[in-house]
Design brief:
Elements (H helix, E strand, L loop, with lengths): L1 E3 L4 E2 L3 H7 L3 E8 L7 E5 L5 E5 L10 E6 L4 E8 L3 E5 L8 H18 L4 E3 L2 E5 L4 H11 L5 E5 L1 H4 L5 H9 L13 E4 L6 E3 L11 H4 L10 H4 L2
Parallel strand pairs: 1-5, 3-7
Antiparallel strand pairs: 2-6, 4-5, 6-7, 8-10, 8-11, 9-10, 12-13
Length: 230
Amino acid sequence: MILIKTVLGNIGDPEWARRLSGADMDLIEIDQWEAQKSRFRKTTAKGAEVAVSIDRGTHIHDGDVLLWNAQALSALVARIELRDVMIVHLDVLTSFAPEMAMRTCVELGHAMGNQHWPALVKDNRVYVPLTVDRKVMTSVMNTHRFDGIRYEFVAGREVVPYLAPHESRRLFGGAEGPVHSHAHESYAGVEAETGRVYGHPPTHVHSHPGAAAHGQTSPATAGSARDRRE
């Protein structure tokens, strides 16, 4: 059993990138919730048993170097797979009349709250980690037709550099359970009054190709697995 008590550096640092350029690297793959812990056990990609016990209040980040053997030119590096994130851009609302901007924000918050989506608001953006299949989230956004609001999906690791540590923990630590597509279950629909989805999404979700880029959306219906469990 290999005991890890400290983080040596990160492969994103130029010095470590140089050291590891020709090194034999083993990976310890952890999910975003394990990354919030200071103590856990894992088996590396090459089969080594590792026990991590770092200071409380500290967390492992993607690319952290946990072991380094200068003589053997070998290293153990952490790899964290973060979920994709939906980014909702609110910058266009600054050009809206105050009443319209407020109404849009309330409607957006209501729609996301109905789906129980964790979210982080920073500057003029709302960050939402994927807790259901991407098609479901796309369908919910399209169904509500939020005027002028555009959204996109990006890899979680692309978002992290723009967040403070506590924001990153809040965004990725609050999304529980795996992402589900549930393509094998039946589709129901969307409540007309609230826009709350139920059942599961159809196999294909259609939207205009330029919708995300121009802040336009087309109606579609889909469902969320979370609602049936409530």
